[in-house]
Amino acid sequence: MSRFPQRDDHLRARQFEQRDQPQWRSAKLRADGKLYAGVGENANGANAQSLNTVLGKMLRINSDGTIPSDNPFFNEATGRNRAIWALGLRNPFTFAFNPEGNQMLINDVGQNTWEEINDGISGANYGWPDTEGATSDPRFQSPRYAYDHSGGPCAITGGAFYSPAIQFPSGYEQDYFFADYCAGWIHKLDLSTNAVAGFASGISFPVDLKVGDDGRLYYLARGTGASTGVVYRVEWVAAPPPTNQSPTATITEPAAGTLYSGGDVITYAGTGTDPEDGTLPAGAFTWSVDFYHSTNSGHCYARAPVHSFDDRLAQRLVHDSDDGRDLGRRVVSDSFDRSRLRRADPLGREGHPSAQGSTDGDDQSRSPDDQGG
Ligand SMILES: [Ca+2]
Ligand SMILES: [Ca+2]
Question: pTM of the entire structure?
Answer without folding.
Answer: 0.64
